[in-house]
Amino acid sequence: MEIPLLIVSLIFLCFFSSALSSSVVTYLPGFQGPLPFYLETGYVEVDQDHGGEFFYYFIESENNPAEDPLLLWLTGGPRCSAFSGLVFEIGPLKFVAAEYNGSLPSLVYHPYSWTKIANVIFLDSPLGSGFSYSRKYEGYDANDTIWSEQAYKFLIQWLVEHPQFISNPLYIAGDSYAGKIVPMVAKRILDGIDEGKEPLLNLQGYIIGNPATGGKVDKNSKISYAHSMGIISDDFFESFLSEINEAHILEMYCPECRWKPLSSRASTTSGKRILKENQNILHPPLFPDQNCRCYVYALAYYWANNDIVRTALNVKKETIKEWVRCNIYLPYTKELKSNIKYHFSLLQRGYRALVYSGDHDLVVPFSGTKQWIKSLNSSIMEGWRSWHVGGQVAGYTMTYSNNLTFATVKGAGHTAPEYQPQECLAMIMRWISGELL
Predict the structure, then answer these.
(1) Spatial CB neighbours of 74, under 8 Å, sequence gap ≥ 6
(2) What CATH fold (topology level) applies to the domain 5-220+334-432?
(3) What are the start-end ranges of the H helices in 61-119?
């Protein structure tokens, strides 16, 4: 017998109080016509003491929202905006990579979005990421534990206000440094289920791409990977980082793409006119060569800092002075040395895991990911083999008895869906449905 949604919501309210504000967005500046999908933006309070609120973008599945999985997507950094995940990786929007001329950058529909098969919450977290903010500066002092606890609190409170999604299969997902946090959030949900606080949550597993673990394996694998790819000898490891695109070793090196303190950025935009509506531009980003993949990152900066855009997204005024794609200027402590114990706990309980890696990433090389997966000491169910999309090899994969699937994405970099969107959509569609890649 199905439990009425009202009763489900009341059960949650017995344990949690919610402070959520949300709005449905049907049009976005820079996108021609109404949005062809359901978009909701809003805030959830996650730090009452300091007045901290997470900002989120929620996009319903374009297939069957009532039954399709619910994904909570965390973006790495730490403190890169989840908007990066939305427009550069797995969401249904992307920027037109046209030369910036002072007008508002244009957006178009992205056909290889994961919202084809899932409801996705893109969460600006921890506080200080994207449009998430704290009224007191102390709220920005974050670490791995604080991030995971606040993400967990967000999810529970969001579901109180969206009880129609409580019974949907739930997956926690993210990439890069968020790959370290995702298993922590999933384990916190499991603990809540064991404690009887969230018995109705339908947690199924987690998804991580080119994930950090916090362990030495992440850094040590860079040397062996770079050496195996013929880039360096071990003796020259440090020097080669200044001339190689770590996110994708075959793409052109663009120094403007590297994160820099705001004080080192140029104060002009190479003579390009800034829109009068842009009242939030404090430190204009450097525009790289238009052939650089990160050129669109600068476009996102001009788009998100436009007052018309902020009004459309229902961003609270005077909360974030300047949106930056990755905020590295606030305190963050990487206090967890390794998250392997969280993988152990979840996998031993039968939860599913998809771990994927772009095979041309030097930030978190797939060789290191394979190494820590091997340390879990699970027997191999299906050995190393190729997987295909459109009759072509899309990567290589293997599955383990602990419900973990590992896959490389051929030709992809650090954020695999950004480089190979069609292949990554095929990968997630097959894995979600329980098929072999």
Answers:
(1) 82, 123, 125, 151, 172, 173, 174, 178, 181, 182, 185
(2) Rossmann fold (3.40.50)
(3) 82-84
Between the CA of residue 308 and those of 29, 82, 100, 280, what are the distances in Å? 7, 20, 18, 11
Regarding beta strands 352-358 and 52-59, do their DSSP bridges make them parallel or antiparallel, or are they unpaired?
Answer: unpaired
Catalytic residue among 81, 134, 176, 357: 176
The number of beta carbons lying within 10 Å of the beta carbon of residue 168 is 22
Active site (annotated) includes residue 263: no
* Alpha-carbon distances of 350 from 140, 356, 380, rounded to whole Å: 35, 19, 15
Catalytic site residue 248?
Answer: no
What stretches of 51-167 adopt beta strand conformation (E)? 52-59, 70-74, 93-95, 107-109, 119-124, 133-134, 142-143
Which class for 59: exposed (0-12), middle (13-18), buried (19 or more C-beta within 10 A)?
A: buried
pLDDT tens per residue across span 343-400: 999 999 999 999 999 988 888 888 889 989 999 999 999 999 999 999 999 999 999 9
Q: How far apart are CA 331 and CA 143, in angstroms?
A: 8
Find the farthest-apart pair of alpha carbons in the chain and give their distance in angstroms, rounded: 66
What pLDDT, on the 0 to 100 scale, is given for residue 196? Answer: 85
Q: Which of 162, 343, 360, 414 is catalytic?
A: 414
414 a catalytic residue: yes
Q: What is the pTM of this model?
A: 0.89
